[in-house]
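Researcher: Re-running this chain for the archive, since the previous output was lost when a drive failed. Same request as before.
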Amino acid sequence: MLALHWGYLTRVNFFPPLFVVIEAVSLRLLQADYFAVRLPGALMGAFSCVLLYVIARKMTGRLPALSSAIILVFCSAYVNRVALQDNALELFFLLTVFCFMKAQDQNSKRWLMLSGLMAGFALLSKFTGVCAILFLVLQATLERRVRRMGPVFLFFFISISAYPIIGAFIDWRTFLLETFVLQGTRVALNPYDLLFTLSVGAPASQLEVYGGLFRTPLQIFTFLGLASTAVIVATGKTSVDRLVSTSVASIVIAFAASQYVWWGFLAVLYPFYALSTSILVFRLLALRSARLPDKNVIVGFAALAAVILATMLVTLLGVHFESVEMAFFIAFALLLAGFAFARTRTFPQLKLILPALMILALLFASTSQVQQTNTNQITDQAQLIDFMNSHTRTTDLVAANPAVTWLLHSRAVNYAEVALYTTREETFSYVPAQAEHFVMNVSLWNCEYIVLDTPWLRDELGQSKSVEMLTPIILTEWKEVYSAGDYHVYQNPRTMVYRIEGTVNDGNGNAVLEAWVTCFSPITRAEYGSHTDSEGRFVFLAPSGTYVFDVWSPSGTRLIHYRDPHFQISSDLRTDILLESGMLVMGTVHASDGFTPVVNAWVSLHDDVNKIDYGQYTETHGAYTILAPAGTYVFDVWAPQGSHFLHYQERNFTLAEDVTRTVLLRTAFTISGYVLASDNSTPVPGSWVSLYDLTTKEVFGAYADPNGYYAFQAPPGTYILDVWPPVDSHYQHVRISAVTIQSDTTMNLNLGPS
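Model: Regenerated structure tokens:
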């Protein structure tokens, strides 16, 4: 989980670390599954409801506090059911408010310190958590207590210092780029996006994705919450009114400063929407009960009827209701009616039932957040995620249901957004193009895979024209490569890649760790590969083609490099490699004086039978080490190009154990020139030019190339020079009895007719 967020694999991105750490702890303590991932968010959402009740009870009384908490329960079921940083932000913002209130009541510096610490934790949960410290500043300014805020700022800056310390420690260059450069160059926020997010829970630019205006219960509640908050801010004079005003103001400022809004941001705003709605309802009920208390029953029934009629109206408009959505409407209606009845003497026992109702609602919310799908769906989703993460690279783009995208290791995007921007022919980038790897063009043909979730898609087809236009293209032109239950995976026909996997073991059957397994294309010069893990397993993706397949053993071992020069890929493959152990041939290469090292000489063992070479260039001190299997080889030492050293060769070199061999290269000079006919212009290719040493019986020579050019090396000395024309040619053999070589020599040789 830490690897998924810090240095985020979909693109380089350094998120604030606190929620990631909490998730990592949950995964470490529990089994690494979806329950462990969702549990922290569920608990934070449930505890936020309790915390809102504690805050509101002190300022408004028991019944309005219960009302606020219960309303928030059913809102939190929407924003806290997956692992989002917004869960932690909501909780730590409410903790900031709670600690600041305690500091006011008890005139306590300790609670001030805790409020600063909680504000820091809010910012460590998400960048928009800056709203917590803004709230403290605004609230202290209204109450003229700014001079006492020193402990708050001290503990705030102490807590948030963990963020730059961790970021700089991991990768300070990328951390600075992400945090300062790109954050400072975001496109200006569309004010309509902010307005629509605050009022209906979705940015204006994404309303088509969400099905339009007032299409879900949450959108309706968001609008009621904004209206109630506006009334409280405009008319309020009490301390709770000021609390709501400063809280909402700080949150809106943080939204505007982030220059990007989406529905998850509302998690921190919903507690105050719930509080404002509850306060306004109870104030209206109080006004009515001052003179006509018996009519509260009528008000309750009217509220119940209004909500039921609204539910029926929205249902007739075509909205599909899930159990959680319907429960929200029913609970809200019963709550309004219950409050009205509780103010009469007819049903005083309802006051005792409300706390039990809140506890049951909290249990229901937590359960729905953690376990939101049935067992079969979870199994299918787990299999889907395993398939996608094993068949995609981090640079691939996958479009899917949002419930799937956040679990992928590759870059991922909502399929509805792909449909929207493809049909409108727009380019969508999550961040500006100042850094190329931050850009995601989500047009259809830029996607590697499309994951279609049948129930989710069925809902989208009834709401989004873009999805209706794009889906038939996927079903007819893309290849289905995987399915599990309701999930179907389609691959882009332009970018088919295959999974290459296997194991690497030594001769004893032991797994080889950190071996580098690679496929190299001589045509495209592209390379694909991976290292083996602790069990010797490797897996990587590569397009179809012919490759040079190599397995390079880790340093410090005696395992011999493996190569297949004609490795074919046309489908998913599995290949298990056995690396042989070898013997070492080591030593040094020096000049004939025995002291001067020869650097960059190529030392090799050539297997004539299997046509395989093992070799290494000499290092700074002329040292070399070659690893090769036991056998018989041709041992060669080739001097660096342009040097005055003679090639060394030893045939029938037997390797049965480790061998140490020191090689002294004799000084040599280059003899070169052209072999021409007697007209001095016609080349005689294929002629053999040689020098014969009468003392050592050594022969040095070379054949003339098509231009008649020859070149070879020989030690200094006196030789017999022979020029042998090609067989069946009409030229005579030429011999020069005494040729002395003391330096590089150029000789053009002429052959006469036979």
